[in-house]
Amino acid sequence: MSSLAIGLILSSFVANEPAAVALHKAVAPFAGNWQAVEIEINGRKLPEDQLKDIQFLIAGNTMTTATNAGIRITFKVFPDTTPMAMDLDLAIGPNSERREHFEGITTVEGDTLKLCWNNGQGVKQRPGEFTGADGTNNFLLVFKRVKR
After folding, report:
1. CATH says 30-145 is which class?
2. Whole-angstrom Cα distance, residue 108 to residue 135?
3. CA distance 144 to 40
């Protein structure tokens, strides 16, 4: 292999390193245990007594339910977008029988995590703002970090 080919291969790793570091920095604030404090779906808020059972553990780019309800979510964030775009892939069931893909937005501000995506009824598009108001067809989820 020529030194030019080796140089091109090595430079591609070096060129991609800043993007990988930026992506790691973007995902790092998501890590931890999260408790739902607000969920609104197209104008309907979930009652507080139902929120206490909705918890997620986020490690790397994977979210799992604290109750082991058979829901596993992998996600990808796009840190250069405003608001930050997030693609979620849900696998539901013990053998991931049901799969769904959602394109949403997210933010982590201190110990508050917000997720928002279109619920797939009607036109499916990435939301431009964090709202689950009536007529938006959006899910809005707000979580607080669980301190251990």
Report:
1. mainly beta
2. 25
3. 15
d(CA 110, CA 80): 19
Using CB atoms within 10 Å of the CB of residue 126, give its burial: 0 to 12 exposed, 13 to 18 middle, 19+ buried: middle
- How do residues 87-143 score in pLDDT, each as one tens digit? 988 888 777 777 888 899 999 999 999 999 987 655 568 999 999 999 888 999 999
Give which of 48, 50, 54 is closest to 36, Cα–Cα.
Answer: 54
pTM beyond cutoff 0.85: no
Name 48's Cβ contacts closer than 8 Å, sequence gap at least 6.
Answer: none
The C-alpha atoms of residue 58 and residue 101 are separated, in whole angstroms, by 18
Q: What is the pLDDT of residue 145?
A: 97
What single letter denotes the amino acid at residue 62?
A: T
Q: Give bridge partners of residue 73 from the DSSP assignment.
A: 63, 90
Q: How far apart are CA 78 and CA 27, in angstroms?
A: 10
Cα(137)–Cα(130) distance, integer angstroms:
12
Q: Mapping DSSP to helix (H, G, I), strand (E, B) and coil, where does residue 69 land? A: coil
